[in-house]
Amino acid sequence: MAPPYKPPANPYQEQTDHNTGAAWLDGHKPVDVDIDGMVDFARNMATVKDNLDGSTGYLDLLGSLPTQAWDGGALGEAMYVAQMMGFHYSEFRQYFAFLSQGLNNIGMAAQTVADAFQGTDGWSAATLDAVEFAYGDTGEGKPPGLPPGFPVRTWQQAFDENVAKGNGAASGQLDHWTLQSTVSAGLTTVKTYVNQDGMTRTDTSPSGSSGSSGTTTTTLRDADGNVISSSSQASRTDVIGDTVVTTTTSYDGNNHRTGSRTEETTYSGDEVTKRSTQTRGPDDKVTGTTTTETNSDGTQTITTTSGNNKRVVEIGEETEGETSGSLDSPARDAMDDIKTHNYPIAPWALG
Fold first, then answer.
1. Which residues are within 8 A (CB) of 47 and not within 5 positions of it... i.e. 6 or more apart?
2. d(CA 51, CA 96)
3. Sheet order of strands, 214-221 included
4. Helices 35-55 and 76-117, interaxial angle, to 10°?
5. Beta-carbon neighbour count of residue 88 at 10 Å?
6. Would you call 253 helix, strand, or coil by DSSP?
7. Quick one: which of 24, 139, 165, 188 is 20 to 30 A from 155 by CA?
8. Strand 243-251 relative to strand 178-185, pairing
9. Residue 246: its pLDDT value, please?
10. Taking 70 as the threshold, does the pLDDT of residue 264 lie above it?
11. Residue 217's beta-bridge partner residues?
12. What tens digit of pLDDT does each residue of 142-161 get?
């Protein structure tokens, strides 16, 4: 008889309990199904959107941890896995960008319904055409209760127009850039990329630079070759004791500072003991920080701040692919039990 089944144990239960929670859902209020309730519903959608936007920064770990896991070089297969994880992370971030926009759109639709029927006797004045208008079906025109200048172009129409112009990223679309050419001339290297909409991105940087030092200028052009934007980044790397500090400052096309990012990596021998990233806005005020500390027992503590929000994430010690006995299957437990007993050999097995 096989031993009783033991449910799998989470070797990182302490970290899971620490990291999970639904505090970001706070701030809602019950709503009534009436015109005033539609306004409250719109406010709730705005609250959910703001809370979601304030928490998506924590997803940065999904993009940075795979890179850190294979820091210093790895097998080609591992680098391929890291690249694919990066692609999936980018798509995940796009999903949240559209989710945030969807929450905003739903709230605005509810607010539009409320605006259309404020000053009336409520639902008795409501029409299906008005509700359909609020949710994007503008074929019947706007309801009479809305002001004359109320826009009738939907978010989807604006998004489609941006995509048609080769600038779908302005509405949250994920760009897929493909390298078209690399040209080196003297001390300058020019790389040209094109995305799925025909938009072109040109990166001009110092030849032989890995991107850690020097200035890189980026120019975006639409499918017709018209310049959409131009920007530049100046990077500098310094070694201070056991810490490598890289500062990247961004500028717009008029050479006005738009922000900066400072990354510090501290080593103990070949091991990274601390990583920190700090971002600053155009006014040089700190907009966010992320610090990853590797503790003596192999666990990590990641502290992220954004404005007045602070979050601490704990990661358990790396197990190098090993699992505890509690994670074994019932069949494996039964086989182990057989191996530890001196059972008599069946007569037919003696030959």
1. 27, 28
2. 12
3. 178-185, 188-194, 200-206, 214-221, 227-240, 243-251, 257-268, 271-280, 286-294, 300-306, 309-315
4. 160
5. 13
6. coil
7. 24
8. unpaired
9. 92
10. yes
11. 204, 232
12. 676 676 666 677 777 777 77
* Predicted pLDDT at 21: 61
Which pair of tokens denotes residue 155?
């978010």
Q: If 0-12 CB within 10 Å is exposed, 13-18 middle and 19+ buried, where does residue 114 land?
A: buried
Q: What is the pLDDT of residue 313?
A: 79
Nearest Cα neighbor of 185 from 201, 199, 205 is 205
Measured distance CA(7)–CA(64) in Å, rounded = 32
Could you tell me if 114 and 38 are in contact, meaning their C-beta atoms sit under 8 angstroms apart? yes
User: At residue 218, what are phi and psi to the nearest 5 degrees?
Assistant: -120, 130
Whether the model pTM is above 0.90: no
72, 144 Cβ separation under 8 angstroms: no
Determine the Cα–Cα distance for residues 231 and 248; give it in Å rounded to an integer.
13
Please give the structure tokens belonging to residue 13: 């239960």
pLDDT per residue over 104-129, tens digit each? Answer: 888 888 887 777 776 555 555 556 66
Q: What is the pLDDT of residues 10-57, one digit of tens each?
A: 767 776 776 666 554 555 555 555 666 777 878 888 888 877 777 777
Q: Distance (Å, rounded) from C-alpha 292 to C-alpha 276?
A: 6
Cα–Cα distance for residue pair 250/272, rounded to 1 Å: 27
User: How many alpha carbons lie under 13 Å from residue 128 in its C-beta half-sphere?
Assistant: 0
Do residues 266 and 242 lie in contact, with contact meaning Cβ atoms separated by under 8 Å?
A: yes
pLDDT value of position 266: 92
Q: Which residues contact 256 (CB under 8 A, 6 or more apart)?
A: 282
Maximum alpha-carbon separation in the chain: 99
Res. 239: pLDDT tops 80: yes
Closest CA to 97 of 65, 64, 56: 56
User: What count of residues does the chain have?
Assistant: 351
**Phi–psi pair at 192, nearest 5 degrees:** -115, 130
Q: For residues 174 and 186, what is the distance between their CA atoms, to the nearest angstrom?
A: 34
